[in-house]
Specification:
Layout (H helix, E strand, L loop, with lengths): L4 H16 L18 H16 L6 E3 L1 H10 L5 H8 L17 H8 L14 E4 L11 E10 L8 E4 H11 L5 H4 L5 E11 L2 E11 L10 E3 L5 E3 L12 H44 L1
Parallel strand pairs: 3-5
Antiparallel strand pairs: 1-2, 2-3, 4-8, 5-6, 7-8
């Protein structure tokens, strides 16, 4: 059976709905510390999500990124130049500037040397769904899932979702490539927001939210944090989706980026102008006293 991303999302959301009705399945066994956060909390939640998706009776393959890359490389070649050439034909592995969405130069070299691949902190997705049949012919039939966990009993700011600068650089290169229109619809980046709480030393998932990056209403974006790696910061549960195509999303993101950047620069200029003027005033006063 051939799957389309819209069908895959329906299946995933139905699975999550079933899980939320069963207390035992909502338990995250590996997450034991109540004060865990960030990477420490994220890894067990990612594993829990992957296990849930692995229970679905479908032909779609579910991987962590490093395992997916090993599969892709193993079906391609052991020559570094040929691996890079193959990656250039994919939306998730082509090089823009010095960056790629899912793979690093180090991982490519490690595979060529015969070493196992480790994870990469800047992966655009924590879980890879491969819905194609052939790793080479269907290499673009990939959905990247970015898993974000939220401990509902702790007040916290919206998490870093993705670098706005990185996204814009990606599309600036991607949309300039020959034949982009043929694979633009293959670019799929989804967010899985997992809310959890603790009870009797157990971690229980309370809700799960699924959002498609390219359907997000950027006008509702809380902020782009230019002081924190230019990250989009947004709770998955608060993301609003609208009907739009990918080009509309990119255009809206670019417009919002420029508006928030100009506001950021103006705010910083006022802040540092005031600081400099105050210092000059203090210096002049001390000179007059002396």
């Amino acid at each position: 059976m051939d799957f389309e991303p819209k069908d895959i999302r329906k299946i995933i959301e139905a699975k999550f709905g079933d899980i939320l009705r069963e207390t035992e399945k909502r338990k995250v066994m590996q997450l034991e510390r109540r004060d865990a956060y960030g990477h420490e909390a994220g890894i067990p939640i990612e594993e829990w999500v992957k296990d849930c998706l692995g229970e679905i009776d479908w032909e779609i393959q579910v991987y962590f990124p490093n395992v997916f890359l090993e599969k892709f490389f193993s079906n391609t070649d052991n020559d570094e130049s040929k691996l890079k050439e193959a990656l250039q034909q994919t939306w998730w592995g082509f090089k823009f500037g010095r960056d790629r969405l899912l793979v690093t130069e180090k991982q490519i070299k490690e595979f060529v040397r015969g070493n196992p691949l480790g994870r990469w902190q800047q992966e655009a997705g924590d879980i890879v769904l491969f819905y194609g049949r052939d790793f080479i012919k269907d290499a673009n039939d990939v959905i990247l899932l970015n898993v974000k966990s939220h401990y509902i009993e702790r007040r916290s700011r919206a998490p870093n979702i993705m670098s706005a600068e990185r996204l814009l650089k990606f599309f600036n290169e991607f949309l300039n490539r020959d034949g982009t229109y043929k694979i633009l619809e293959k670019v799929n980046l989804w967010f899985i927001g997992v809310d959890y709480a603790t009870s009797n030393d157990e971690t229980i998932v309370t809700n799960i939210h699924t959002r498609d990056l390219f359907l997000l209403d950027i006008s509702k974006l809380p902020q782009i944090n230019f002081d924190a790696a230019i990250q989009i910061q947004w709770h998955v549960k608060d993301m609003v989706e609208i009907e739009q195509d990918r080009l509309a999303f990119v255009e809206n993101l670019a417009d919002t980026f420029m508006v928030q950047w100009k506001n950021h620069v103006r705010s910083k200029k006022e802040k540092y102008d005031s600081l400099a003027e105050n210092l000059k005033g203090l210096i002049d006063r001390l000179r007059n006293v002396s």
